[in-house]
Amino acid sequence: MDTIKLTIDNREVEVPRGTTILKAAEQMGIRIPTLCHFELDGLALENRPGGCRVCVVEVVGRRNLAPACITECMPDMVVKTNSFRALNARRTVLELMLSDHPNDCLQCPKSGKCELQALAADMGIREIPFKGQQSQYAKEFSPSIVRDANKCIMCRRCESVCHEYQSVGAIGAVERGFPAVVSTAFGKNLTDTNCVLCGQCVAVCPTGALAEVDNTGKILRDIANPDVKTCVQVAPAVRVALGEEFGMPPGSIVTGKIAAALKAIGFDYVFDTDWSADLTIMEEGTEVIGRLKAYLAGDKDVKIPIMTSCCPAWVNFYEKFYPELRDYPSTAKSPQGMFGATVKTYFADKIGIPRKNLICVSVMPCVAKKYECEREELGVNGDPDVNYSITTRELARLIKICNIDFNSLPDAEFDSPLGASTGAAVIFGVTGGVMEAALRTAVEVLTGETLPRIDFEEVRGLDGVREATIPVPGVADLKVAVVYGLKNARTIMEQIKAGECPYHFVEVMACPGGCIDGAGQPYHHGDASIVKARHAAIYEADRNMPIRKSHENPEIQAIYKEFYGKPCSEKSHHLLHTIYFDKKIKFDID
Amino acid sequence: MAVKMHILVCGGTGCSASASHEIVAELNKELVAHDLTDFAKVVVTGCFGFCERGPIVKIIPDNTFYTRVKPSDAKEIIEEHIIKGRKVQRLLYVAPDTNQSVPDSKHMEFYKKQLRIALRNCGFIDPENIEESIARDGYAALAKCLTEMTPEQVIAEIKKSGLRGRGGAGFPTGLKWEIASKSRPGEQKYVVCNADEGDPGAFMDRSLLEGDPHSILEAMAICGYCIGASKGLIYIRAEYPLAIHRLQVAIQQAEEYGLLGKDIFGTGFDFEIELRYGAGAFVCGEETALIHSMEGKRGEPTFKPPFPAQSGYLGKPTNVNNVETYANIPVIINKGADWFASIGTEKSKGTKVFALAGKINNVGLIEVPMGITLREIIYEIGGGIKGGKKFKAVQTGGPSGGCLTEKHLDTPIDYDSLVAAGSMMGSGGMIVMDEDDCMVAIAKFYLGFTVDESCGKCTPCRVGNRRLLEILTKITDGKGTMEDLEQLKNLSAVIKDTALCGLGQTSPNPVLSTISNFWDEYVEHVVDKKCRAGQCKALKKYVIDPAKCKGCTACARACPVSAISGTVKNPHVINQLDCIKCGTCIEKCKFGAISIQ
């Protein structure tokens, strides 16, 4: 390899050509602070504008200071990361940033998780020498995301994610000079833009400029209300991430503690979204088999590829960008939606209360789910199937508010009848998981034979686009693709539009690596090893399950027997399937 | 009968604004009326440079130079000068020193020390007529390059000439072309002309494009030949409508003549040029920001490397040069690198165009050889300070430059000497200040400009410059402290050291150079709460001299805030706490009893 030698802080180091000063210093144990710089290694997510200037270092012989994050090492370069000149400049830059910041850390949603706050603490900022004008923007609310532009430090991470990663482009820098800030076109509310509410902007924002809508207060009030019963469902990815909020190592599986905590908080019924993930496989799998058979039989009207529809940001994406292709995704509701529809009918009847008196809450790794709850078609006469959703982070806060020592909680079980699940359900939380779960069921149904091997390794992994050919003996070679990141989904949609899509079945997740890095998960601050640990934990949870195929879940078999009849029956069509709308945004520029 | 006389009328933006097109119409009307259309011809040209006295009409061949011409003067010009051969005395330029009228441009101090290379055709040819350009060697250099020289030879010639970029930083042009030519050979490349002139008071590029668009097109084609590009783009601000119009006409004519387009001169070389319009953001003069703007993205700079030569427009190798740089290219090819290199100083060859403005008698556009002194420019070409006031400073390099003082007047100016003196060449703005200018207010003015024009991408420029401006405002408001001055210095140094692009890195220069050259004035503002130039309103104090005041009450009656008290026939007094410093009292006082302290 072509390497070069240079000196950083009086020590020599050899690095491959093209290495930045930041990376070279990092490998020597020198931690140069950064703010705008963001990289999620191996998940193709990065932001390197070199704009915040916090990482400036002195390069001997250079006229001005160099931003370590984007300056490449040169042979024989002499770098000083802690010379007075560099330190003074870095401090001044930080003071400038803070001089246009509300500094209301006590009531900030990012407090304790804020990178700006942490840097100010590390640098020992005691006062801000600069007084002057401060940005005065109004807070903006959407069903999922709160924007407080006064806290924007123009790092542009959100912009990069929104444009480069998701190809959505709902937010970007507007204005120039001091008023420059990240905002929407014409200052419109996020809901009136192309925003799909994936929330990845929230996930990468170093400050409190972007945060989730907080629903923890609603939960406490509903639990205290004697007139209603409360039930809660927990999404697969939550159980491999929540532990981080309580100091556990990334990848800790805390399923039992979550069930115990939710019971301690006071929910009347603690259920599992994994249960409805199995239900989703029954419905979506049946739909896949039906469409595929028709397609293979030569039916020209059938839409192939069939696409998954459990990611709410992805649903928003095709409704806003490709409404003309909205017949391709499966009509199956998301697991959250299927759970809500079942609990408000079957379960409310079972316990003998009107649906309005049963509050259904979901715990999701996601902020887009909050919007999904508000979809009119996912409710009856204004009563939502799922009343509202909270994120993994909100659950952590709720646990703390309720005086629960999470780490010492003994494990508990989910309640029945909507609590049992399989390994196929838990892998919904990771990219490729829905595909694999569907294959475990669909291939068995199509061939009528038990799978010799249920680990579909070929659809696993953390590459943004993965494709595989799954031989289904006697039927066809099934061509499948798994993508995450909506930019990759866009590529598939364009293929479909051009009539060049080679796949039969496509899984799409908006977030990097799937729900494990959903926008509602504990902040990883660009540490990809955290995401990878969650990824591994999901498959470990799968392996630990006694049953690993959705159609073998006894509670699922029971509900079909007792309530739905069979997959894609009339009743399930009514309750477990949905329709999509043309939500293309048209900007009127007058 | 062949045309014997040409009546050149300036059609630049300045003279057009003074209705020079009406002069043209009147002149033509008179020529028709006197049946002289075969004898004399009216030509609308680009800028003559002597904008102070526009509109300008020049008669060729005798070089008679008429100033401040009005449409109603057309009849006299035709009847006296064209028909009878008698110069219209009252329209001639009168030299302020001798008070004598000057018969022709060759004897005007304004032109004597100028050397017009880039501006060679401005004020000579009709920019909307390609044949006039061709008659003055237009496209001859392109022909020579395409038919007699290899790209390497052309680049070697440009390198040998010592030409440096005229946009501000002075990077050697030949070297820039060489890098672009060697970058990713065989790929689509682009030649870009940076016509996003943004310095306050600067109009060099605009005048060049309005007066001689073909030279720029020709040079771009030569550059395309050298670096292997078939496409050129001119990024020009939409607020230059006349320059845009002339470029459009020029491109169309060049295409019709086969001088742009496919297979130029039958050599197989293709080159086409398109215009791209900017919205007038100063930062888009920075080449990476300019490229982003052309791509339809937000006009903001990115870190270099990669340089445009490596990855520019649409990610392709791109060569960006300023208008004036291109204007020098054809002459260098035609007359040779040695000739060009014989002009100027050791490290700065050729000439530089400056837009001379401010408190100077001859405001206008000038082109001078490198190495000339500021004294020659200000006192000889510029005709000295307006109103006989005392010279105080000259700002070069626009908002990125610095203020030079009396002690710099005899320094031969080139890229390096200006930097050494604490300023820079910049694109060529030159603004002269006299004793009535407050240097703190001047620094504040320039900083106000950069604060408005910062793109907001990097923290030091976005927030730091705003804070600098706030400190300066505090000082001019009479609320500054010595600590503020220290903070001004530290913050300026940090912004220079940390900002992302040239705009931010140079934005504190006006502050730093005024601090270093006029420290006393800053201290006066802070400690004595005094502005010696009387420019800082908050520091002005209006006082009535009791010895001169007759007690007429005129001032007290006129004062809009009733800040003046006193009884009839007794001296009046201004209550300083109420006074809003509007100056009405001074205007009303017939006895000169009120003064500003």
Describe the protein:
The complex is a heterodimer of chains A (590) and B (597). Chain A contains 18 helices and 22 strands. Chain A is an alpha/beta fold and 590 residues long. In chain A, helix 15 links the parallel strand 21 (476-484) and strand 22. The longest helix of chain A has 24 residues, at 273-296. In chain B, helix 21 (509-517) crosses helix 22. Classes of the chains: A alpha/beta (590), B alpha/beta (597).
Describe the protein's topology.
The complex is a heterodimer of chains A (590) and B (597).
Chain A: E1 3-8, E2 11-16, H1 21-27, E3 38-40, E4 45-47, E5 56-59, E6 66-67, E7 78-80, H2 84-99, H3 115-122, E8 140-141, E9 145-147, H4 157-165, E10 171-174, E11 181-184, H5 200-204, E12 210-212, H6 216-224, E13 229-234, H7 255-265, E14 269-270, H8 273-296, E15 306-307, H9 312-321, H10 335-351, E16 358-364, H11 368-374, E17 379-380, E18 383-384, E19 388-391, H12 392-401, H13 423-426, H14 433-447, E20 465-472, E21 476-484, H15 486-497, E22 505-509, H16 528-544, H17 554-564, H18 570-576
Parallel strand pairs in A: 1-7, 13-14, 13-16, 15-22, 16-19, 21-22
Antiparallel strand pairs in A: 1-2, 3-4, 5-6, 5-7, 8-9, 9-12, 10-11, 17-18, 20-21
Chain B: E1 5-10, H1 13-17, H2 20-33, E2 40-45, E3 57-60, E4 64-66, H3 74-83, E5 93-94, E6 101-102, H4 109-112, H5 130-135, H6 140-148, H7 151-161, H8 173-182, E7 190-195, H9 204-211, H10 213-227, E8 231-237, H11 241-256, E9 261-264, E10 269-278, H12 287-294, E11 318-322, H13 323-335, H14 337-341, E12 351-358, E13 364-369, H15 374-381, E14 391-396, E15 402-405, H16 415-420, E16 429-434, H17 439-453, H18 459-476, H19 482-498, H20 502-506, H21 509-517, H22 519-528, E17 542-544, H23 554-558, E18 564-565, E19 573-574, H24 584-588, E20 594-596
Parallel strand pairs in B: 1-2, 7-8, 7-11, 8-10, 12-16
Antiparallel strand pairs in B: 1-3, 3-4, 5-6, 9-10, 12-13, 14-15, 14-16, 17-20, 18-19
Helix pairs in contact in B: 2-3, 6-10, 6-13, 7-8, 7-10, 9-11, 10-13, 17-18, 17-21, 18-19, 19-21, 21-22
